[in-house]
Write a structure and sequence with these properties.
The chain is an alpha/beta fold. The protein has helices at 34-44, 69-82, 94-104, 127-141, 145-155, 160-167, 172-177, 182-188, 196-199, 216-228, 246-258; strands spanning 3-6, 12-19, 23-27, 49-53, 88-92, 112-115, 206-211, 232-237.
Length: 259
């Protein structure tokens, strides 16, 4: 990241600007940094001014206690101001929940797009999310960062053998370093259910995208987002999973944000 700005509470935010055209801030999900969405930013660069940033508590950005979702909305407000006073937002997974909250908060956002926000209404009614929240809080409170990462990986559906292999890999230390931010994504998702009243307050066009090869509950959640915001549209990318390929997603986002 080659640029810095400061959020309302004094937290330093690291970001990078790539390309030209209307500004679009890319918001990563859990266990990720701005570098995670950088490949997508480069694919958008011919059409948009793509902005990638490290969310607070990760990468080169700072952090300030106590955490609140409102602070992350203020982070987006600072970034929007830094890139000209108005910017579209795109968020993947739990980053999409943050984008929707920011749009509902009335930030100067002309359009917003999200990819597979994991609202659990169509999975188990939020029961798994509640159990995960309780165990995550306990692990982080005890300083068991590795256990917190394992909890998250299980939540995503990874098998035990894959998790053991990850724990023995060189990347594990980096995963543990951002483990405290798992609580932030957990807070952004609230009780795990579709926040219908909050989404009804979103006054800008929203594109909700899902992968055709993703679990059915994720596709249903994406459709529900589009059907709940006042100006929603839904799109399914055939053959894509939750780990969507940037070269498939970028043309869709470029058309939405420049159309």
């Amino acid at each position: 990241m080659d640029k810095k700005t400061t959020s309302r509470d004094g937290t330093s935010l690291a970001y990078q600007v790539i390309g030209r055209g209307p500004a679009v801030i890319l918001v990563s999900g859990a266990m990720s940094t701005g570098g995670t969405v950088a490949p997508l930013a480069h694919r958008l660069a011919d059409h948009c001014t793509a902005v990638v940033y490290d969310r607070r508590g990760r990468g080169e950005s700072g952090d300030t206690a106590p955490y609140a979702v409102e602070r992350e909305v203020e982070d987006l407000a600072a970034l929007i101001d830094a890139v000209g006073g108005s910017a579209g937002l795109f968020g993947v997974s739990s980053g999409g929940a943050l984008v929707l909250e920011a749009a509902a908060s009335g930030l100067p956002v002309p359009q917003a797009a999200v990819y597979e926000v994991p609202f659990a209404d169509f999975l188990d009614g939020g029961a798994g999310k509640r159990a995960y929240t309780e165990r995550l809080r306990a692990a982080l409170s005890d300083g068991r960062r590795g256990d917190a990462v394992e909890l998250f990986l299980r939540l995503t559906g990874l098998g035990e053998e894959t998790i053991r292999s990850a724990r023995e890999s060189p990347m594990w230390a980096g995963m543990e370093s951002v483990a405290p931010s798992l609580a932030y994504d957990d807070a952004v998702l609230g009780d795990g259910l579709l926040p219908r009243e909050r989404l009804a307050a979103v006054s800008v066009p929203v594109l909700s995208v899902a992968g055709g090869a993703s679990p059915g509950w994720m596709r249903e959640a994406a459709e529900a987002v589009a059907g709940t915001v006042p100006q929603g549209a839904h799109l399914t990318l055939e053959g894509q999973t939750h780990a969507v390929e940037p070269e498939v997603l970028a043309p869709v986002l470029a058309e939405f944000f420049t159309g």
